[in-house]
């Protein structure tokens, strides 16, 4: 009786022409961190030795050395598949750091230059009666103007934008839907100066020339804000599962009540984020506000419809335009204030989004 002996298969499946070996070793868990620290220290020592140390050069050489060594070690110990995975992972992290580098640089520059004058006095005093060369005055009137103008623009833009998005998602069909979406996309790319010129022309037709005030500035920001709210809200509403709508309809709930009680609460967190992105888009605009809200206001103005109204972007522009060390310090402090205002608004929006979002058990 003949018996045939077969060789045991090599562990691991075959992928194309490459056989995966499950018996390959693996690098230690702390290898990436130790290697990165070692590369940073060695590169820094070499650059200091040759007297060419710079943070940008140091970071680039450290990243290059880390990628080359980690991929080579992984290929020798773990195999080519794991080495490719480490290479792609390193590239992804590197792109993330490159994207964050400008943001961190801007924040650090504003923080370093703005802290010199950023204090309680700067936040609670206006420029009324202060000459440009005087070491006094603050941005309280500009903070009030920014909040008033942006608040009015938000009150106008959010209802219009959200209801337009609801119409596009729930009601619009065919050619009308395509036409509306086309014009919304076109409005999204409108330069801010064009919005300012449009409102200036509108104000001149209604009230005559020279009538600049905070309301005109709010209208110009509204023109820029509405398309952003529409597009972001539309995307959030489309993410609501159709099953929720159909379940509501099956219970006999009318469409308008399904939208208000099911669709909008379900997408509340996303809608809030989109609205905050729209606010962040317009709160730093300068060109339309120079044309519509004015540039010479130095006192506090709480009335949007009476007289010029200063705001933080225009305040920064006016201080830089006048020149001088004191004015530059005011400009940097105002820039830091504007960033903090935006961060505070985002924090409040997150809290409101969590408050109104549907509770999941």
Characterize the structure shown.
By secondary structure, this protein is an all-alpha fold. The chain has 2 domains: 26-114, no CATH class; 123-356, Orthogonal Bundle (MetI-like fold). It has helices at residues 31-50, 55-77, 80-114, 120-124, 140-171, 174-188, 192-207, 214-238, 242-250, 255-266, 268-282, 287-292, 312-322, 325-356; strands spanning 14-15, 18-19. The protein has a two-stranded antiparallel sheet. The longest helix is centred in the N-terminal third of the chain and has 35 residues, at 80-114. The chain is flat and about 75 Å long. Mean pLDDT is 83; it is low at 1-7 and 12-16.
Provide the fold topology.
Elements: E1 14-15, E2 18-19, H1 31-50, H2 55-77, H3 80-114, H4 120-124, H5 140-171, H6 174-188, H7 192-207, H8 214-238, H9 242-250, H10 255-266, H11 268-282, H12 287-292, H13 312-322, H14 325-356
Antiparallel strand pairs: 1-2
Helix pairs in contact: 1-2, 2-3, 3-14, 5-8, 5-11, 5-13, 6-8, 7-8, 8-11, 9-10, 11-14, 13-14
Low-confidence stretches: 1-7, 12-16
- Number of distinct helices: 14
Mean pLDDT: 83
CATH topology annotation of the largest domain: MetI-like fold
Distance between the termini: 68 Å
* Strand percent estimate: under 5%
Rg over CA atoms? 29 Å
CATH architecture of the largest domain: Orthogonal Bundle
Summary?
By secondary structure, the chain is mostly helical.
Defining key terms:
361 residues; MetI-like fold; 1% strand; flat; two-stranded antiparallel ribbon; 2 domains; 14 helices; mainly alpha
